[in-house]
Automatic annotation (TrEMBL):
Any single Pfam family the record assigns to this protein: Glyco_hydro_18
Signal peptide feature range: 1-24
An example Gene Ontology molecular-function term: endochitinase activity
Domain of life, per lineage: Eukaryota
Domain GH18: 53-333
Alphabetized UniProt keyword annotations: Carbohydrate metabolism, Chitin degradation, Glycosidase, Hydrolase, Polysaccharide degradation, Signal
GO BP terms in the entry: chitin catabolic process; polysaccharide catabolic process
UniProt cross-references to CDD domains, sorted A to Z: GH18_chitinase-like (cd00598)
Enzyme Commission number: 3.2.1.14
Enzyme kind, highest EC tier: hydrolase
Catalyzed chemical reaction(s): Random endo-hydrolysis of N-acetyl-beta-D-glucosaminide (1->4)-beta-linkages in chitin and chitodextrins
PANTHER family from the UniProt entry: ENDOCHITINASE
Organism: Agrocybe pediades
UniProt protein name: chitinase
Amino acid sequence: MVKVSMKAALSLLVGALSFAPVNSIPLEASSHNMSDVALKFVSDAKNAVPAAPHFVIYSDAPVSGQTGPPPVSQIQGFNVFALSFLLTRGAFDKALEWTQLSASQRSTIKAQYAAAGIKLIVSVFGATDAPTTNGADPIATANTMAAWVKQFNLDGIDVDYEDFDAINAGDGKAEAWVASFTKQLRTQLPQGTFLLTHAPVAPWFSPGRFGGGAYLKIHSTVGSLIDWYNVQFYNQGTNEYTTCSGLLTASSSTWPQSSLFQIAANGVPLSKLVIGKPATSGDASNGFISTSTLATCVNQAKNQGWNAGVMVWEFPDAAASWIKAVRAQAFPE
């Protein structure tokens, strides 16, 4: 997710400063290794991919008095919770907090989330990591991150790839990197057992705007391996995706054919397109719409045959009351 607000920027800085000593060691060298041996390769039927609609909430900002994910009561109405972020240089913020809990604490939380029908995953990369530009190896990175998911007993992984310089280069290297990374993740995190989602910005589905094809190319290459896309319909311009029309059926000329149904018309299954929005105007530079407007848009989309779900950045600005309002018309709890 693109972190543009002062709050989000401070969160990242605090996380980096607080967790630097831990992140100076390789992911697989965590001090929790021995206590997690029994959990390392858990992949039973309870990890199966949930049916749509998907209601996804990310968590990166520190929450006073809270280490790791919140009690399920605070996120009632969501069914996927994404700890953010696992970077190429280690776990930060909420992802790191998860490792700082004991194995017993993690097991208890996972059981509570499972009982509530909520999948617990980790989101990787985000706005502060540029793996292609920085020369990270996609295979080795995928192996390390998949091992982290297994080690810490999570239900899957969300690929929040935001290497804009690499995509904008238009030489196809970004698309090839993401495809290789995704394929290798699937060799380690089998489909149907672990979740694997991606979180592209909506303009990356605009045909003909990026030399390498951006996410239309990625989808054509490895889309069958991806469970769904948490599409970021924000941070792309002051007036982008801020009306139901612009969000659903007619994006602007700046990012043509990148609204929900236009993306589907260009070959991406409607069932894989989750609508992503910021919780408040402070959670993004632009693209925010009120919960009442979003609820109307979601209902309009459902009436046209869509039911993929809604994603939000981020907890605690969004919580149970936020998703209840957004679901109210189309998917009442």
